[in-house]
Amino acid sequence: MIKSPFNRAILIAVLSSFTCLAVAGKSVSNTPITVSLIALNDFHGNILPPAGTVLGPQPGDPAGVRISAGGAAYLSTLVHQLRQFNPKNTLVVAAGDMVGASQLTSGLFHDEPTIDVLNQIGLDVSSVGNHEFDKGRDELLRLQNGGCFKKNADATAGRVGIDTCMNQGKFKGANFQYLAANVVDKTTGETLLPAYVIRSLSGVKVGFIGLTLKDTPSVVTPAGVKGLSFSDEVATVNALVPELRGKGVTVMVVLIHQGGQTTAKAVMDKSCPGFTGAILDLSDRFDPAIDVVVSGHTHQEYVCFRPDGKLITQTGSYGRMVTKIDLTVDRLTKKVIAKDANNHLVVNDVEVKDSNGKVTPLPAAYVSLRRDPVMDKIVKRYGDLTATIADAVIGRISAPLDRQRSPGGESTLGAVIADAFLAATSDASYDGKPAQIAFTNPGGIRSDLATSLTVTFGHLFNVMPFNNNLVSLDLTGLQLMRLLEQQWESPNLAGGRIMPVSKGFSYTWDASKPSGAAPGMGQRVVPGSIQLNGEAIDMNAHYRITVNNFMASGGDGFTIFSQGQNKQEGEIDSVATKLYFGAKGMVKPPALDRISVISVK
Fold this sequence. Notes:
With 601 residues, this protein is of the alpha/beta class.
């Protein structure tokens, strides 16, 4: 962790003079109480140190320095250290997406390892995020309450992620409480999980309201949220404030899986330059009684104050940082009179190498955390169990494949994955009709292939961890054009959700044209530009398309796929991509010439 002085404002408050008042014949100190929170978000099952680095501040160097951070064994040590500043009045909280899109080390075991890790860290309460619904409501409730994963009838050898209950044949579930204030079961009218919890710290009642973004149904598989409704975030929070007040709560914290972003270049910048995003509008409309908003979802890092005094925090992602929040509470009124927060890097001792393989030493301003031996044992066990699968070499790449988007919206990694999907389903024996075009969703590509030119299955699983099956279906040329317009129809995606597409398919879009704020109104795809193997798409003809089952069911707002005919399910996406790498031997970054754009400002 970086060396920095303890927050002096809090220290002065804690050590202020012990003036006493006579209350009912007893002497009571009016020294303020400090309530501390250690906050996390978007852990995504990264129990091993995640790939990549973060840009940290470097004294005397405005460019900053790359730091390797994360890993549950290091995270546990830092949380323990931060607890020691205020051991009796500290809680660990989270803002969702703690599971889902996880490393193979956790994903292979249906994220039971992550729950074990979070239990060991001492997480107290967390909101749900959209990824908590990746495998549906029943699986979320299993992670909360315990019990073994129910293997599907088709969970046969070769499929990834069928092992469960690895601790003496049992899984006890989460010791912490998941909250879902705005997720309602349509049948019962009750929230799927509790809306809030109340914790008492030195006589101060602290209320935690937990919720996720109301647009969750648009970013998860529709089947996963069937029978559930997602209510407006502001209306939900503000309706609960009087109820919490009635129960004596004087400090209120919102844990919400929604976020924003700043233009800060390095982590731990508390100046909040260019703070934007959905979380601002939500927080500003939350009842003034809300003291702190712990946010997530956008994988950004910030500690920001709003004009009304609300504190908003986020810790990036993958367990690379935590936020320590200190609330100074008046002992008599039990209300917050001062607040502060700082993000802390989970600095690990993993070697950082540059593009030439040279090891970069840890800067003098940073101190590597020691691994928590108990946590290290837990992580090592799961790591050893998956090592054979994770370390298996599946192929090589001639240069890094990443998610960096071209002006048109393509990426080298996305294009390769789309090509792999097409290759897996373009055989004429596949339902008697070969696939002609393949798409994948950019949100399903979770990391780059950039750390090594030798690609292992573990690398590939980190890229695409959802275990989605491929689905082939028929769309008309007219439906295909409507599908492309849907890429810009999400109100929460100003830049669009442009799908990587397979080789041979191409089109042009015009950024100056209307983006289709209302379904069916988009005009961005240039008429006549949609081609397959150099020939214009026939609006009346049928085309065989391959996507993953998330997209096939209308996920990410691509509802046209749900209208497809003659659907047939195929191989798991990661397995299909593995076979593609094996067949190619050496995969080269493709030219980004499939999607063109005009009128870019």
